[in-house]
């Protein structure tokens, strides 16, 4: 397959954390570029953790060092999909606490923990880093990390963050894992942040309507930077949205916010509709069901595709008015990540 032309597809992002099946065989990501009518723009490899004491030996990908033999297939396949035009990022942090606390200390301690992270990014040729900050961190700490990554890897290095939707709707700490203000971060370093992989699931947001996306827009975030994140399988946590409802939500989002950020799925290995046998079919569905594309002028696209679908979608999706002051940012419920081990 030839490389995907820039701008030829919307932003379709998939996280890949569970790298092996129950029997230990690798979960291949090659179908994301080899299967017909299947495209993704970005794959995010999860999850990178910085442990004590800081060194190459204590930086882990999930529960093992990245150079462990179990990851040899993963790294080879990453090179292949990169050659096909897919950008590959690493995900730093996540549900396992400690990584960002270690990076949020004095300059000496920061350098000690940052060095193995920088070396890992260089060694594996990653195109960017996704900061999934699910523990308290200062605004100054995340700004320092972003600045250092841009200094070391240049302006083309992709930096994304993975806030819960509630953190972009409300400034209240109880509704934000990270505890710093994403509004303030966007003002200070928005020009260095490519987009936000926004979690509309697990009680932090709801993608069965556009209501929470609308509320984020009311806070002033650019629509093009809000990637709507979803659970790809109800087994992965609360908040899964059936495809018939999801399709209508995406239609309405594009009609209201042409060129909005795109879609993100957590996670690849058991993504529906194909489940563990054909997880790439989630990307196939996204590729074929998006009614928008960067290659088609939004006005023309809406005029030719949307009218009847949009009317049906608006009538069937419960969608509160965005100026309803009684609407509050949601609170989280429990969520367990899968692990390779």
What does this structure look like?
The chain is of the alpha/beta class. It is built from twelve helices and nine strands. The protein has an eight-stranded parallel beta barrel with strand order 1-2-4-5-6-7-8-9, surrounded by four helices. Helix 5 links the parallel strand 5 and strand 6. Helix 5 (139-153) runs parallel beside helix 7. The radius of gyration is 19 Å and the shape is globular. The model is unreliable at 291-338 (pLDDT under 50).
Question: In a few lines, what is going on in this structure?
Answer:
With 341 residues, the protein is of the alpha/beta class. The protein has helices at 31-34, 72-83, 99-103, 107-124, 139-153, 165-169, 182-189, 211-218, 243-256, 281-289, 298-305, 307-316; strands spanning 12-16, 42-50, 59-61, 87-93, 128-132, 158-161, 195-199, 226-231, 262-266.
Helix and strand topology:
Blueprint: E1 12-16, H1 31-34, E2 42-50, E3 59-61, H2 72-83, E4 87-93, H3 99-103, H4 107-124, E5 128-132, H5 139-153, E6 158-161, H6 165-169, H7 182-189, E7 195-199, H8 211-218, E8 226-231, H9 243-256, E9 262-266, H10 281-289, H11 298-305, H12 307-316
Parallel strand pairs: 1-2, 1-9, 2-4, 4-5, 5-6, 6-7, 7-8, 8-9
Antiparallel strand pairs: 2-3
- Spans where pLDDT lies below 50 across 5 or more residues: 291-338
Largest sheet entry: 8 strands, parallel, barrel
Number of E strands: 9
What is the residue-mean pLDDT, rounded to a whole number?
A: 86
Identify the overall geometry. Answer: globular
Helix content: 25-40%
**H/E series, N to C?**
EHEEHEHHEHEHHEHEHEHHH
Beta-strand proportion: 5-15%
Tally of DSSP helical segments: 12
Over all CA atoms, what is the radius of gyration?
A: 19 Å
Widest beta sheet: strand line-up: 1-2-4-5-6-7-8-9
Given helix and strand content, the structural type is alpha/beta
The end-to-end span amounts to 33 Å
């Amino acid at each position: 397959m030839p490389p995907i032309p820039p701008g030829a597809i919307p932003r379709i992002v998939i996280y890949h954390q569970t790298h092996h099946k129950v029997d230990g065989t690798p979960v291949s990501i090659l179908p994301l570029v080899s299967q017909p009518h299947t495209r993704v723009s970005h794959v995010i490899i999860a999850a990178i953790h910085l442990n004590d004491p800081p060194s190459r030996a204590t930086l882990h990908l999930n529960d093992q060092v990245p150079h462990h033999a179990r990851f040899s297939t993963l790294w080879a396949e990453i090179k292949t999909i990169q050659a096909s035009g897919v950008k590959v990022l690493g995900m730093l942090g996540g549900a396992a606490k400690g990584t960002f606390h270690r990076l949020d200390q004095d300059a000496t301690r920061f350098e000690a923990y940052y060095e193995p992270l920088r070396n890992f990014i260089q060694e594996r040729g990653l195109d960017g880093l996704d900061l999934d900050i699910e523990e308290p961190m200062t605004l100054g700490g995340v700004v320092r990390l972003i600045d250092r990554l841009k200094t070391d890897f240049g302006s083309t290095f992709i930096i994304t963050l993975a806030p819960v939707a509630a953190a972009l709707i409300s400034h209240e700490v109880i509704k934000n894992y990270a505890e710093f203000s994403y509004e303030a971060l966007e003002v200070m370093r928005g020009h260095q942040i490519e987009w936000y992989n926004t979690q509309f699931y697990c009680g932090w947001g709801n993608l069965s309507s556009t209501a929470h996306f609308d509320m984020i827009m009311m806070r002033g975030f650019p629509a093009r930077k809000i990637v709507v994140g979803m659970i790809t399988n109800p087994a992965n946590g609360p908040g899964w949205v059936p495809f018939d409802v999801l399709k209508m939500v995406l239609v309405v989002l594009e009609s209201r916010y042409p060129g909005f950020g795109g879609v993100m799925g957590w996670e690849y290995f058991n993504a529906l509709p194909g489940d563990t046998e054909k997880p790439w079919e989630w990307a196939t569905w996204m590729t074929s069901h998006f009614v928008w594309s960067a290659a088609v002028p939004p006005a023309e696209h809406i005029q030719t595709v949307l009218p009847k679908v949009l009317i049906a979608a608006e009538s069937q999706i419960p969608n509160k008015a965005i100026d309803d002051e009684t609407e509050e940012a949601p609170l989280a419920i429990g969520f367990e990540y899968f692990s390779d081990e």
